[in-house]
UniProtKB/TrEMBL annotation:
Keywords: Signal
Domain of life: Bacteria
Record flagged with keyword Signal: yes
Ranges for region Disordered: 170-195
Keyword check for Zinc: no
Signal peptide as annotated in the record: 1-31
A Pfam family the protein falls into: DUF995
Polar residues composition bias: residue spans: 170-187
Protein name, UniProt field: DUF995 domain-containing protein
Length: 195
């Protein structure tokens, strides 16, 4: 079965919108989690502090999950279902300026796309603030006394990604055993980037 390849620009726009929606929903808390700003006393978290929070954790999203594997700093994720399913593999990167970046190649039945999403973190006592870069809003990621609906509570030690990612990868290979649609899409992405 051959899968139609959508145009590079259209694929990028759709995936950018899709990922923005996933990460926006992943970063939303209830009204109690919202904050209009970060206290002046808050400082950027260090790479070590971020490492302790994210290593070997799965981040549960509304329709998927991402896994930050310690060994090799591998990032794996899946999102969506059926024809709208995506899976990703890449790396998670930390900085002493308080950033966590998820850099990965996202795959679907329509092709593949490289993406990078970063989150900034600030800490004030035990409270942690987070925002999606470059244009997200700061919110309370973890309250000083953690609340059940804190985004932080969606980081769990269980691997919620590997089995689903493997199933999506196998499904894509069965749909396109020669990898022709993904190869054609990657070729069109490469040509588009070269121009």
């Amino acid at each position: 079965m051959k899968i139609a390849v959508i145009g590079t620009a259209r694929l990028r726009r759709w995936l950018s919108s899709f990922l923005a929606a996933v990460f926006m929903l992943a970063g939303q808390n209830g009204a109690t989690g919202r904050d209009l700003g970060v206290p002046e006393s808050a400082r950027p978290m260090t790479a070590v502090e971020l490492y302790v929070i994210y290593r070997d954790r799965s981040w549960q999203w509304p329709d998927g999950a991402g896994r930050m594997q310690d060994q090799g700093r591998i990032f794996k994720a899946w999102s969506g279902s059926g024809a709208d399913a995506w899976w990703a593999q890449g790396r998670w990167i930390l900085s002493d300026s308080g950033q966590l970046c998820l850099q990965a190649k996202w795959h679907s039945q329509s092709g593949a796309y490289r993406g990078k999403t970063c989150f900034s973190h600030r800490i004030d006592g035990q409270a942690i603030y987070q925002k999606k870069e470059p244009s997200g809003e700061w919110y309370v990621f973890r309250h000083a006394k953690p609340l059940e609906d804190d985004e932080f509570s969606k980081l769990v030690p269980e691997d919620l990604v590997s089995a689903r990612l493997e199933a999506l990868r196998n499904s894509a290979q069965q749909s396109d055993p020669e990898g022709t649609s993904v190869a054609q899409s990657l070729k069109s992405v490469a040509i588009g980037e070269a121009q």
